[in-house]
Amino acid sequence: MTPTDEGWEALKLAVEDALELPIEARAAHFDALFRDAARRAEATRLLNACERAAGSPIFELPAPGFAAPVVAEVDRREPELEKLRSALADRYTIGRELGRGGMATVYLARDERHGRSVALKLLRPELVPEVSPLGGAARFQREIEFAARLSHPHILPLYDSGATGGLLYYITPYVDGDTLRDRLRSGGRPPLDESLRLLRDVARALAHAHRQGVVHRDIKPSNILLSGEGDALVADFGVAKGLAAAQNPPGESEVDLTDGALVLGTPAYMAPEQVTGDPRIDHRADLYALGAVAYELLAGTPPFAGRPRHEQLAAHVSETPDPVATRRPDIPRGLADLVDRLLAKSPENRPRDADEVLRLLDAAVVHPESFSESVATSDRVRRPVPRPLRHVAVFIGLTVLWSSTPMTGSRSARTDPGASAGSPTENPATLAVAGPGLGALPGRARADGPSESGTTDREAYELFLRGRHLLNTRQRDGLFRSLEYFEAAIARDSAFARAHAGIADAWAFLGMFGHAPPHEAFPRARAAAERAIAIDSLLVEAHATLAHLLFVYEWNWPAAEAALERAIAIDPRYPLLRMYYASFLHSVGRPDEALAQLAAAKELEPLTPIGLLSGRIHVDAGRPEEAIPVLREAIEIDPRLDLAHQLLAHAHLRMGRGAEAIASMRRAAELSGARDSAQLAYVLAATGDTAEARRVLERVFEGGGPLDLLGFHFAMAYAGLGAADEAFRWLEAAYAQHASFMNLLGVSTGFESLRPDPRFDDMLRRMGLR
Amino acid sequence: MDLPADHEITEALFALRDREPAAMDRVMELVYDQLCRVAHRQLDAESTGHTLTTTALVHEAYLKLVDQTRTRWQDRRHFFAIASRVMRRILIDYARRHRAVRRGGLPDGTPPTPVSLDEAELPVAERAEALLALDEALDRLDRFDPRLARIVECRYFAGLTEAETAAALGVSQRTVAREWAVAKGWLYQELVRDAD
Question: How buried is residue A460: exposed, middle or buried, by Cβ count under 10 Å (0-12/13-18/19+)?
Fold first, then answer.
């Protein structure tokens, strides 16, 4: 019966009335009401069901009575939960069951100490044998403690874990959202851009965890949580490894298929070496699982789906899955290749690590092979960039900008012009990732005409994208080559504003990173930005670049502030602009306003890497204790962020921790070379080791190079050594060059000994900072 | 692990008065534990031969959990209606857990034990499956006749009397009696169809 509203009401009323009539009068009642025989039959069926239901055991007692034996049996077989309830009574109130998987049952619980909702995961007791004083539980806990130290935007943190009466549990935040498994079940295969974003999130989580020496071993859709914002969070790091450790004394092979068939991990996503219990299993097992998840996201099912468990396990070891391109011919070839490589049987044939996976993901989606004919149509070119991908772009852009070493090594750029012949696909996600690229993520939808910000020339657009991609390498050669691509794009379409903006960015970066003399690079950047703005007066990326160079190079503070405000008026939702503004405000000695802009950037885009800049502001404002945690977090996310180590050193120094300051600055110097070697000399001098400070400086001078551009840092070193004349010589050199970092002279730590000197004030006045 | 703070439930009930949708979930979370104990008390009563009405237990939960000095009759009615929903969820959770415990490691998709409704003594596993099937049928019923679904929750899952159900839902006792009879019939029909 599928009752329609009005039909059901009439039927219900008829049956209710009939039930109050004597049995012999009921048929006549229906006859009178319903002319249609089918309706009469329906009413009679329901009436009979009502009669039978009254005598059915299910309705004999209210449900608590009917269910009593069920409750009793569950309680008998789940005594552990009651044990846990009383053992944890002071700490956690255990509520309803949220779900259960192969390894654990998850309960909603309340953390009484902190007054928050958490998820309590109770491991299945049969998985944890207590064999010795240092039994399974202890090994599990030791393993999971490593995982508890992970802190990353895409990793679900582990709050707590414990063992009581042979029961193991751990506590994570309660995330009120679906898992990827739920998402796939309810929504089917996600759109390509969403899949790419999820894969990226998971790869970033893996990259971080692997660097900390933590492997997951059970990457699968039900371990990937989706936050309200659509970000992916990887749950249960360390759990599978911990369970394996709990079951097997150290040194022995971790799984034994012949034994109890108790294989940890999930058959559909398990790496071959995990199936066979290879003791040399490492982080690349996670990459295989990531490949299986990617396969499912793209093809709709994992590689060997639909077979019994043991056959799936065998297939992982011995069978090559259908290449994902045969299941999904419309995806970029680079992406299909990546998924197939992740699923390689031998770990050696997979990408080396998750960082490489990230690079390949990037390369796959910007690679020209993946372009279709449809790119040429203007509506596709100017398709508004989906928000989630924009944030990927801004993240790359910002990290590039605020650090001087690559976030994930240098990106390999494929620029073979012949490559565009292959595998045409319609792939908007490609445009979305490649389009905005470095620092360009206009928040407004581009409904304006093709002559303003985009181009109708397909080849010009392709050239532009390649330029953008090369811009992200931030290497000297890449930046110069990106200029060639942008110029080639402009040669085809001189009104292509975004290509002009690309030229502006390329020159600005060449100047900022010391690859070209500032007085050559910045004026060119300015001219190109102005050209872009002349074509598209609302092109926010060009306005941003212009405003930035107005203060970092031209030291034209009022003009810079006006330009920043104008740009924000054009697009108030552009996080990079807020970073620029914060940097400006800090330079002119308005730290609190600067921090407010950073907060705004974070609000707009939670992944905006504001750590470095907020660390700098706190250090310079004399609050080193507040700088330390944010800088540590920035380093956690990217251990190669040289400026974060540098600033951490200053924070330690301000707190009187000389040894830590020196250690951090040594790390910065290893990463950045001459610049932070000069800063190391400063830290050494400031901690009293003037001899070593001078030795460090001499070694830098022996290395040669364009040291004028590093005048700011050498001046700091000499300021630390108390050699004011030397310091001012270097400052004058940097002043003459309008070198990087000089915009910070008014506020930066490190120049304390020079500040009383009239020459210092004089320089600030000349720079417009007094 | 004991009772959630009284004032939280009381406040949540007030919010419900103001028709805040989130308040319903909040009250449900808060009374879940207490009502879990109700389910156990029922069990003890069964095994010792005493007959304890669920109503008495829900009422007891109400007295324990809610600050009487600040509430009105309307709040009490809300509480009973909500408690009935929570009882449904508790029992269905038990049925799911039963399925999981019994199946051990069997993968999802293993067909459930067929339900037979007319044997005098239902095995435990069939009871659990019958409850799950009934829960699904009740969801379907909810879509076209929500009042009927609420009556089933009060009468069946919380074991409220006709009079209490009528009070909790703000309908006449006669309506409860008539609708409960048809609801049982409709659900029975659905369960038999499922079992075929």
Answer: buried
Q: What is the Cβ-side half-sphere exposure of residue A523, based on CA atoms within 13 angstroms?
A: 5
Q: What's the farthest any 2 CA atoms get from each other in chain B?
A: 53
Distance CA A191, CA A177 (A): 19
A727-736 tens-digit pLDDT: 999 999 899 8
State how many domains chain A has.
2
Q: Is A201 part of a structural domain of the chain?
A: no
Give the nearest partner residue to A70 out of B89, B121, B131, using CB atoms: B131
Domain with residue A428: its CATH number is: 1.25.40.10
Q: Which two tokens stand for residue A429?
A: 């996600």
Whether residue A136 contacts residue A129, with contact meaning beta carbons closer than 8 Å, is answered with yes
Who among B91, B100, B181 is closest to A63 (CB)? B91
* pLDDT in the model for residue A310: 75
Question: Measured between beta carbons, which residues in chain B are less than 8 angstroms from residue A56?
Answer: 117-118, 188
Cα Rg of chain A (Å, integer): 32
Domain end among A517, A545, A571: A571
The DSSP-derived string for B26-43 is HHHHHHHHHHHHHHHHHH
Q: Are A609 and A402 in contact (CB under 8 A)?
A: yes
Q: What is the ipTM of this complex?
A: 0.81
Q: Which of A604, A602, A610, A583 is nearest to A594 (CA)?
A: A583
Query: Is A46 within 8 Å of B158 when comparing Cβ atoms?
Result: no
Helix axes A591-604, A611-620, angle to 10 degrees: 170
Task: Decide if B1 is inside a domain.
Answer: no
Closest-CA residue in chain A for B176? A16
Cβ–Cβ contact B192 with A under 8 A: yes
Instruction: Read off φ and ψ for residue B70, nearest 5 degrees.
Output: -110, -5
CA-based Rg of chain B, rounded to a whole angstrom?
18
Q: Do B38 and A85 touch (CB under 8 A)?
A: no
Q: How far is A222 from chain B (nearest CA, A)?
A: 14
Contacts of A592 (CB under 8 A, 6+ apart): none
**CA-based nearest residue to A597, from A566, A622, A564:** A564
In a domain, A358, yes or no: no
Question: What CA–CA distance (Å, rounded) separates A249 from A244?
Answer: 9
pLDDT for the residue numbered A333: 86
- Say if CB A484 and CB A611 are below 8 A apart: no
Evaluated on CA atoms A391, A395, A396, A400, the torsion sign reads positive
Q: Which domain holds residue A41?
A: 5-59
- How far is Cα A188 from Cα A335, in angstroms, rounded to an integer? 20
Q: Is the dihedral of CA B26, B30, B33, B38 positive or negative?
A: negative
Q: Mark which residues 75-134 of B lie under 8 Å from A by CB.
A: 87-91, 93-98, 100-101, 105, 107, 117-122, 124, 127-128, 130-131, 134
- Asked if residue B53 belongs to a domain, the reply is yes
A322 in Cβ contact with A252 (< 8 Å) = no
Partners of A407 in the β-ladder: A409
| Surface of B (24-83) touching A: CB under 8 A | 29, 32-33, 38-40, 42-43, 46-47, 54
Which DSSP symbol is given to B153? I
Decide if B178 and A20 are in contact by the 8 Å CB cutoff. yes
Tell me which DSSP letter residue A89 carries: T
What domain range includes position B37? 6-195
Q: B113-122, pLDDT tens digit by residue? A: 444 444 334 5
Q: Which of A50-64, A600-614, B16-30, B87-101 has the lowest mean pLDDT?
A: B16-30
Considering only CB atoms, which chain A residues are within 8 Å of B39? 64, 67, 71
Of A19, A67, A86, the CB nearest to B94: A67
